[in-house]
Amino acid sequence: MRKIKTLLQSDYFILLLIATIYIIVVSVLALSRHYAFDTNTWDLGIYSQSLYSTLNHGKLLYYTAELTGNPSGSLFGIHFSPFLFLLVPIYAIFQNPATLLVLRPIVISIGLIPLYWIIQEQQINHRAVTFFLAAIYLVYPPITTPLSNFDVEVFLPALFLFAIYYMRKGKLVHSYIFVALALMVNEFVPLIVMAMSLYVFLLHRKEIINGIKTRKLTKNAIFAAALLLSALIVFNLASVVITSFNPDALNTKWEWGEFGTSPNEIVTNVLTNPLKTINVLLNNGQNKLLYLGALFGPLAFLSLLDPLTLIMTTPWLAASLLSVNPLYYEIGTQYPAFVSPFLFVSAVTGIKKLMDFSSRDVLRKIVFLMFISLILSTFLLPNDEYFSVTESDESTRVALNLIPANASVAAMPEVFPHLCNRLDGYPYFKEDVDYLLIDVYSWWYTVTLPQPAHTAPKWRDAKIGDDYGIMVNANGVLLYKKGYTGALESFEGVAFTYTSSNVKTATGSFVQDTVTIGNSTATTDVLLHTVDDSTPLFFETPQKVLPPGNYNITLVLKTSSTAP
Known about the structure:
By secondary structure, the protein is α/β, with parallel strands linked by helices. It has 3 domains: about 1-255 and about 285-380, no CATH class; about 390-490, no CATH class; about 505-540, no CATH class. The protein contains 21 helices and 10 strands. The protein has helices spanning about 1-10, 10-35, 40-55, 90-95, 95-110, 110-120, 125-140, 140-145, 155-170, 170-185, 190-205, 205-215, 220-245, 250-255, 265-270, 275-280, 285-295, 315-320, 340-355, 360-375, 390-400; strands at about 410, 425, 435-440, 470-475, 475-480, 490, 505, 510-515, 520-530, 540. A 6-stranded mixed sheet has the order 2-1-3-5-4-6, covered by helices on one side. Strand 8 and strand 9 (about 520-530) form a beta hairpin. Helix 2 (about 10-35) runs parallel beside helix 7 (about 125-140) and helix 9 runs antiparallel to helix 10 (about 170-185). The longest helix is centred in the middle third of the chain and has 27 residues, at about 220-245. The model has no long low-confidence stretch (mean pLDDT about 90).
């Protein structure tokens, strides 16, 4: 009994409890959004289909979402992510995107282990503060968002936290193992590891320089050199692998505008054109400043007290702030994972420095400041619309149940994750598939798809042949089947009501008047058009796409005279 009591009171048990609550809450939220069709192809559907095709068809991380810009279909034609092979046996347990959505908070929670060790190493011997920092880590926006998506970069915070802890403890082989795993996650990671090599050198510069003077290589010098050499090898290997699968990938992948289309060209132009570099940094400066605030703010800017550790954030901060792609400097994406572990470690070091220079009462002030900063930082997050199950979602569910598992299908990007366990599934219009599933009221219906799928036709421009018959026409959801000539399996018409609040005036004006519709009478705003108005057109309704069908239009008008 005493052992059980001791276990329940241990730090590790409390951390496990915090992690369990986090995993359950985030998993429920993510799955709820997923089954309300609030996830999409980029990137949940892509990773799910890549793992499915590898498991079941022996195709190397094959996916269809970006075939227009990556003809090989292998994820290696876009990203160097051999780390994904470690996920294949996990995905095999339950081959469904839900597996990845649940895996994500589990992976984030694993980072609590090295974080706890780092806090203990800094001798912040205050249990309440330790658990507070653990909770902050789990809700820290750059780490925990986006809730309802999956990207392989989610593994980076935990991997780098383990690497930093073992590095500081002098267990360099252990540290290198985690660095090597991180290098397998994404082709950008080698640049971060190069910065890590510089960090190790600066951290142990006296020892390393003295060793060089005495012609003796210290273990830290060897470790720094090993990091640099490994980063260079993997960086070049990644370029070779990506171009072998997709020869044009690197020419379109690097989104840094006038700086160039290759890493060497970009770095050269950035360093040799300081005025242009400054100008690009200031471009969209407000959003970039908000981005930095969302990175540093939740940690009360304590990270700035440890500039040495922040060296490891410079590769991605420079790349993101100089990019022409606004997603690179947005919190609600996977990209902050490139810097978030280093920001958190430096914040812990900053707390320790304040404790050393001030009384222990400073901890209470730090906790309060971090709590307030975290609350304020939530206002910098993207405004995701509240999700709920709509009539359109129910109609989509009906349509999905009519599509056989072995059929080829093209569907909207938000529906694709529910159809990705097949080789012939596409999130864009494709001719000659067995089924087409469209939602004319989806945001994706009118937009250009993300690069490199941007050359695929927009859904609204799809030219569906007469050889397709409609099986479902309900609430804007249309299911077409090739060769189908039968009756509708499901029909639910659409209706739009326009009032003074959602029409645009032309030459008319709004006035108060009494309106009678049926048995109801009310005084409300109405549109008024007089003979003195310059044109007959006095209001416009918002443009709406209408599914195929016959429609009734009811217009309530009140005239002052029947004379022409």
